[in-house]
Design a protein that fits this description.
The complex is a heterodimer of chains A (about 375) and B (about 200). By secondary structure, chain A is of the alpha/beta class. Chain A is about 35% helix and about 15% strand. The chains are: A alpha/beta (about 375), B alpha/beta (about 200). At the A-B interface, strand 11, helix 10, strand 12 and helix 11 of A face helix 3 and strand 3 of B.
């Protein structure tokens, strides 16, 4: 279980309480973040990267729990598409997360973990916290904000709610609202967590055992939505796992089962189950048009940024139509927007994997 | 970099500082000139993802899309000009595409290869086969040019739709020629249109 005090990450305690969409105010918010590359004297070369649901601030640094390279190590670094020898890259853990930023695993005002007493947060609340971080760092205008999946939602939300804070907005494999199908998959995951007897209504921090099994199942179900059928077939087919024949039992006979079980366990080793509930809820609540009177174009009415949206042809979680919907709204708002649907075999996760055209689009757009 | 003759005419006749949509912008050659030399706010639409990628790489705002379908995403009067260069003959419904151009743009530039150019006629007459030329370089079965059009056909369509021709230019071998005998002398044509 990750909690703030086991990490040696950079973090900042926000001076002011964080106003939330729920109407509540969150006091003493800590935002954990990582930076890469030097900030120019004029502070104009900063790029804020927003992480996805299961990500964190370790975009290009070794993860303190897993020991694995950063989640976008292939994209961020010296000489890479997001070139840290030119840009100062900032990535912060979202509010509600579990890697050092205040979330349900953090201690509440009474000194005990918040658990389910933590207020329900939204994508816009997450953005507010990071804008507060930018204020504290003295960065008035970002060279760019970049995000994929949930990170793309944050990027769009920042563009809509803080239109002066970024010159460029790059939103990859994302959507301006969660669809019924998106909410449905998240609900399966949440119910899996809540069905685990170790969840204890979210009050498991002192019990020594959290709902790891439930969280692992949630991750398994979600992971399927990040891949494509062709990708799964290509990677696993019907191949058996370390055995010559079916066992006529319920072991992980198939490679795909073994893979998913591994993904589930690895995830529950590093992620807080309650954080998973809160962050998926925030994504489900996300509807950028609804926040702006029901018309998405109005969300971007004051936008002065250049936009770039990228989708992947095999992404069925946030399919191309969702990006087009955003592009349509940006066109109606007369905002400068580029859009490209890239061909990649891996489904939604394509933005994290080897995809040379994505590298070129990102590099070019940031120029 | 020198622009193709039809693009050079368009670049020279777009009012400086205007808002322009280049439909089928390719790798953004015209958009580049419009932005750099004419101070325009230029946007593009292009169907080929690799071309879009290159446009984004050169700092242009280009949306991957199909002119037959995705122009519907733009509001009325979104642009001062909508430009369609050498793309009309590839449209599923060139007449509807023309309507879309003049809905989202107050004015439009349309350029296309003239199928009634005398070399085409000669080639068809003498060989009895679909011509393959410099401007129409691909065989009939794989060409994207599914609606061959002549200068006369296009003028007829404009008349039927009540579209105003503000100006027109005709070219043979990249050299401008007069309009009177354009239907057989012009290799390609450019029209400046308004509603």
């Amino acid at each position: 279980m990750a909690s703030a005090n086991t990490l040696d990450a950079r973090s900042l305690k926000l001076r002011d309480p964080l106003p939330l969409d729920s109407g509540q105010r969150l006091e003493s918010v800590r935002v954990a973040y990582e930076t890469y590359g030097d900030l120019a004297a004029d502070k104009a070369n900063a790029i804020l990267i927003f992480h996805a649901l299961s990500g964190d601030q370790h975009v290009a640094s070794v993860h303190p729990i897993t020991g694995k390279p950063g989640w976008w190590d292939r994209m961020v670094g010296p000489g890479k598409p997001i070139d840290t020898s030119r840009y100062h890259v900032i990535c912060a853990n979202v509010v509600g997360g579990c890697m050092g930023t205040t979330g349900p695993a953090s201690d509440g005002p009474d000194g005990k973990p918040w658990g389910m007493r933590f207020p329900v947060i939204t994508i816009r609340d997450m953005v507010r916290a990071q804008v507060a971080l930018l204020d504290a760092l003295g960065i008035a205008k970002l060279h760019a904000v970049v995000g994929g999946s949930m990170g793309g939602m944050l990027a769009l939300s920042l563009a809509a709610n803080f239109p002066d804070r970024a010159k460029r907005v790059l939103a990859i494999a994302t959507t301006a609202r969660h669809s019924a199908q998106n909410i449905a998959f998240h609900e399966v995951g949440r119910q899996a967590v809540m069905a685990d007897p170790n969840w204890r209504e979210g009050d498991y921090y002192s019990s020594g055992k959290g709902p790891e099994k439930g969280l692992a199942v949630a991750r398994m179900a979600a992971h399927i939505t990040y891949l494509s059928e062709a990708g799964l077939t290509d990677k696993f087919g019907r191949r058996l796992q370390n055995r010559a024949a079916k066992s006529f039992g319920f072991d992980a006979d198939f490679q795909v089962e073994s893979y998913l079980r591994h993904q589930g366990i690895a995830f529950s080793d590093r992620f807080d189950a309650n954080a998973y509930l809160y962050i998926t809820r925030a994504m489900d609540y996300f509807d950028l048009a609804e926040e702006h009177g029901g018309r998405l174009a109005d969300a971007f009415a004051g936008a002065s940024s250049r936009f770039c949206l990228v989708s992947f042809d095999t992404d069925w979680l946030y399919p191309t139509a969702e990006s087009r919907h955003v592009v349509h709204a940006l066109n109606a708002a007369a905002a400068p927007v580029s859009f490209v649907e890239l061909s990649a075999p891996y489904g939604h996760d394509s933005f994290l994997l080897e995809c040379p055209p994505l590298d070129r689009v990102i590099k070019g757009f940031l120029e | 970099m020198s622009l193709r003759a039809d693009l050079a005419v368009i670049a020279a006749n777009v009012r400086a500082g205007s808002r322009v949509l280049d439909v089928g912008c390719g790798e953004g050659e015209l958009m580049d000139v419009l932005q750099a030399e004419r101070g325009c706010d230029a946007r593009g639409m292009e169907i080929d993802p690799e071309a879009v990628e290159r446009c984004v790489g050169r700092g242009l705002s280009v949306v991957q899309g199909d002119a037959d379908r995705d122009l519907a995403d733009y509001p009325d009067d979104a642009f001062d000009y909508a430009i369609l260069s050498q793309t009309l003959q590839t449209a599923a419904r060139p007449d509807q595409l023309l309507e879309e151009l003049l809905r989202i743009g107050r004015r439009a530039f349309v350029s296309f290869p003239n199928f009634a150019y005398w070399r085409m006629r000669f080639s068809l007459l003498t060989q009895g086969r679909m011509p393959v030329t410099r401007h129409l370089p691909v065989s009939w079965y794989e060409t994207q040019n599914i609606h061959h059009v002549t200068v006369q056909d296009f003028r007829e369509l404009l008349r039927a739709k009540g579209v105003t021709v503000e100006r027109s230019w005709f070219f043979t071998r990249e050299r401008e020629i007069g309009g009177t005998s354009a239907n057989w002398r012009a290799e390609h044509a450019v029209f400046q249109l308004s509603r």
